[in-house]
Amino acid sequence: MELKDKLLSSYVAFEDHIDTNTEIHEIRSKALENFDKLGFPTKKLEAWKYTSLNTILKNDYSIFPDRGRTVELADVKQYFIHDIDTYKVVFIDGKYSSFLSETTHDNFDVCLMSSALSKAKYKPVIQKYFNKVAKQDNLTSLNTAFVSEGAYIHIPKNIEVQKPIQIINFTTGSEPATMTQPRNLIVVEENSHVQIIERHQSLTVNEVLSNVVTEVFAAQSATVDYYKIQNDHSNASLVDNTYVNQKSNSVVAVHTFSFGGNITRNNLNFFQNGEHIDSILKGVTIIEGKQHVDHHTLVHHIEPNCESHQDYKGIYDERSTGVFNGKVVVEKEAQKTNAYQQNNNVLVSDKATINAKPQLEIFADDVKCSHGCTIGQLDDDALFYMQQRGIPKKEGRGLLMFAFANTVLESVKIPEVKSRITKLIADKLNVNIGFDL
Amino acid sequence: MLKINNLHASIDEKSILKGLNLEVNAGEVHAIMGPNGAGKSTFANIVAGKEDYDVSNGTIELNGEDISELAPEERAHNGVFLSFQYPVEIPGVSVTNFIKTAINESRKARGLEDMPAKDMLKKIREKSELLEIDRKFLSRSLNEGFSGGEKKRNEIFQMAMLEPKLAILDETDSGLDIDALRIVANGVNKLKSKDNAVIVITHYQRLLDYIVPDFVHVLHDGKIVKTGDASLALELEAKGYDWIKKELV
């Protein structure tokens, strides 16, 4: 049976486990209809021209995986940022793990989507925000149809959350192939501040497809710092659909670090609904083998006096392929917009491919919009310079690539995340960084 | 120390060095002067091992060993240092981290452990003081946004750190104001010993007021056509290169 049919036909079984007599369920059912109509994206769609899901849609995914084996902290500790105190919302095969988690309801909520969807006290927030900024496209609709679990984070106004929040989804490989649909909602009210680290990690080499939807609402003067660490096994694929709605004077930064996985597609969408907003989108991609990473970004400048900063760097080795499609829309009302976009790529192997497509749609006349896109090899003069100082070619190449990628890390605000990513980059590039970070 | 015999080299089939001979002994300072396009930078790059050139004939010996087949880093490990005319900018790698990496790679090649951090810091402090380099400067990305003078001073700082046997300074004076020139020259002089040698490549005599050469060579059309003592540099400064060209005819 094709995956789409399998999903559609298992919906009835899914309904057996949830309360169907709710507004949420109406949203689910509508989304299912939408997915039925749209199906999985194909390369015929402009937005999916360079990314084909065909190979991974052939797998016979278990849609409601049983929790196969228990996970001990020692097995997974390495995937946490564990050297600092954090809140943790952890899922194993799509189910909440209270053992690995550390949630809170003091002053603010860091807890579960399943509770938020079912308990009356969360209803006002859910009604106001759930599925409001998410686009009703193919894969987001699929996620919405099966929405049941994920992280729910609600920070009321004037709170600076002191500890970062880690959202981690593990798959145990209890089934030969597992599909999950995590759904996160993050609402940050006026003048509040939160830092989030998200990670998807399979614990075996069994096939995994995660179709994640995250909605972020940043109210006036709110600050959200979001880090996505994508360093999964080579048979794990990820579609990350993130939608950010910002109000005046808010600052939202999303850093995406893509090092692992099979096919990774990041749909990162920002909507600026207010003035003096800053949206920051940054990414480092370092892949090899037959890995594929696709960054599809959208920044929608709707009102005046806002900024957006995009900086994506990619290093592609062997037969890996990359896509960067950065769309910036500046509406007629959005005068005095400053929109910057930078995308630099290094192809290490002549079999690697990058498809880079900046897309600017500007309807206002008093704006500053820039975009720069480069695709190149490493600088031979720089290599010779390093060799002349005694650094062998191989190490020199590593160091150059490390330096190239590392500039994106300057804006990482959590030192432990920065050092972790620095180390991941060094490992990925086989660089022995025998110096201080 | 360095013995170059009948060196011929070309790039993209354009012949640049046409039988260059040069012998430099430990403890000596040699200046190579000559008009634009004479092959001065090519000479420096070839000794350092840049791969773009096709060396068709001749030998390059360092302390009796033929180094012409060695990779640039191997030559560096053997004590060759080239101060670049145009030092390359490397964003994302600080001066300190770069020099630490360079030193430890050289040590690794000689079978030594990394230099202990304490010793490294002490050495960095000493050598940066010698070249009057501000400590803040050391944490900046290598050469990125440096002024011409800062780049050259940084080259000599690296030379001081690496303590080469043979240092080739390719137009180290270009882009330097008089104060920076004095600091750089002072640095080079302090590093000079009976065990190492310096080749100064320059257009102008100015630098040679500070770094006094034992020998001055004129490179013209890919060959050394005249050799003299420091007074030759003064003569060239006064008379230009044309009289040498005429002498050759």
Properties at a glance:
heterodimer; A: 437 residues; alpha/beta; 10-stranded mixed beta sheet; 11 helices; B: 249 residues; Rossmann fold; 6-stranded mixed beta sheet; 4-stranded antiparallel beta sheet; 8 helices; 29% strand
Number of strands of chain A: 20
Number of helices of chain A: 11
Question: Mean of residue pLDDT of chain B?
Answer: 92
Largest sheet of chain A: 10 strands, mixed
Q: What sort of overall outline of chain B do the alpha carbons produce when their principal axes are compared?
A: globular
Helix content, binned percent of chain B: 25-40%
Give me the oligomer status: heterodimer
Strand content of chain B: 25-35%
Helix content of chain A: 10-25%
- Over the alpha carbons, how many angstroms does the gyration radius of chain A reach? 21 Å
Helices, strands, pairings?
The complex is a heterodimer of chains A (437) and B (249).
Chain A lengths: L2 H7 L1 H6 L6 H16 L15 H4 L15 H4 L10 E6 L2 E2 L12 E4 H6 L4 H7 L8 H8 L5 E5 L9 E7 L5 E4 L2 E6 L4 E10 L4 E12 L4 E8 L5 E11 L4 E8 L4 E10 L5 E10 L4 E10 L5 E10 L4 E10 L7 E10 L5 E10 L5 E9 L3 H9 L4 H14 L8 H14 L9
Parallel strand pairs in A: 1-5, 4-7, 5-8, 6-9, 7-9, 8-10, 9-11, 10-12, 11-13, 12-14, 13-15, 14-16, 15-17, 16-18, 17-19, 18-20
Antiparallel strand pairs in A: 1-2, 3-4
Helix pairs in contact in A: 3-8, 9-10
Chain B lengths: L1 E10 L2 E11 L4 E5 L6 H9 L5 E9 L2 E2 L5 H6 L2 E4 L6 E5 H15 L7 H14 L10 E2 L5 H15 L3 E5 L7 H14 L5 E6 L12 E6 L2 E6 L1 H10 L2 H7 L1
Parallel strand pairs in B: 3-10, 3-11, 6-9, 9-10
Antiparallel strand pairs in B: 1-2, 1-4, 4-5, 7-8, 11-12
